[in-house]
Automatic annotation (TrEMBL):
Residues 132-300 form the HPr kinase/phosphorylase C-terminal domain. One of its GO terms (molecular function) is ATP binding. Both phosphorylation and phosphorolysis are carried out by the same active site and suggest a common mechanism for both reactions. ATP binds at residues 155-162. SUPFAM superfamilies: HprK N-terminal domain-like (SSF75138), PEP carboxykinase-like (SSF53795). Homohexamer. It comes from the Bacteria. Its cofactor is Mg(2+). Its EC number is 2.7.11.-, 2.7.4.-. Residues 5-129 form the HPr(Ser) kinase/phosphorylase N-terminal domain. This is HPr kinase/phosphorylase.
Amino acid sequence: MSNSVALSKLADKMQLENLLPDMDISKKKIITNEVNRPALQLTGYFDHFDAERVQVIGYVEYTYLEHLSREEKIPVYEKMLSYQIPCLIYTTMTKPDPDMVELARKYDVPIFITKKATSAFMAEVIRWLNVELAPCISIHGVLVDVYGEGILIMGESGIGKSEAALELIKRGHRLITDDVVEIRKVSDDTLVGTAPDITRHFIELRGIGIIDVKNLFGVQSVKETGNIDLVIKLEEWDRDKEYDRLGLEEEYTEFLGNKVVCHSLPIRPGRNLAVIVESAAVNHRQKKMGYNAARELYNRVQNSLMKNMNKKEED
């Protein structure tokens, strides 16, 4: 996990209503992507209490508290809030009672409310925190969405990555980030790429300068985030190097422990990079759906050889 995410960012993203607006939450951080419903804690059981998690009070917890007397509730409130939990969120149009609000102010614990149902809200928070708190690295490259596939284009500076991305944008595909790609590992199978805030939607073209893709081509030409499904490495054509011409065996590159299919693409004058990237995206999608063109060709050749051998034996 990376270090933390600001509590204020969570509040803005989930559109939470702050019941203690006078409290300074700018320096409060969330350090885990887990969320807790403190059901047992409200009964007084605090062993193994995950106090570092966002705490969510749903309708069940709320109705349970409604059945307790004030003398029973206050010690439980005080014990839970004394753990310095990141925040307390009431869901499903429920609200804390005045005692909870006052004690939260005493222990400097923010309280939020949301109209969303508890299960849906928790799923949304966990999904968002998974991305925000995922391990992250920054690499040099261009990330584009081509036919729904996230294509990471890599290569040495000046080899034509941004020009290829611009041609893809003109052909109706979407830019996620140019020059710097922030890669987050959100699961053992999924890598998500985003742009740094400062360079989002910009492309650098040598000899022209910086262009704003969103303003130049419209909002349909950009995307905030995208999975990294395929890596294409651009390299100068090497006459002495043997390049894969069939693609029977997949090559991989690794980011944060996750392997991603990788193609090395030699650059020569006259090669249309945008069309090649489009073809690679569609071909990769076909493979995921169970069709492998290289394997199909190999099987046809093998079948043809077998037929010829059988024919010779018959003759």
